[in-house]
Amino acid sequence: MLATILWFILVGAVIGAVARLIVPGRNPIGILLTVLVGIAGALLGGVVADALGAGTLVALVFAVIIAALGVAALTAFQARGGSGGRGWRRTGRGTY
């Protein structure tokens, strides 16, 4: 069980790092947050697959898919502003 959790953590970290490397241009989130979201997604995917009674290989594939979707969703959310367009914004007149 512990070895499986460690594998999911490793897979999530790799997915997060690879996602950080393949996104072109300036990334709106840091590498640490990207890796942490990858790890969380992989753990979530592994837990869900285990709850469904899937085998080890299916759980690994499910963990990779959930981790990649989590990193992609976070990157897209941060790229469009993160707070839905609210918050402090420069108006161009020297005021905020």
From TrEMBL:
Keywords: Cell membrane, Membrane, Transmembrane, Transmembrane helix. Its main location: membrane. The keyword ATP-binding does not apply. The chain crosses the membrane at residues 6-23, 30-49, 55-77. It is a multi-pass membrane protein. The keyword Cell membrane applies. It is found in: Cell membrane. GO terms for cellular component: plasma membrane. Belongs to the UPF0410 family. This is Putative membrane protein YeaQ/YmgE (Transglycosylase-associated protein family). It comes from Actinomadura namibiensis.
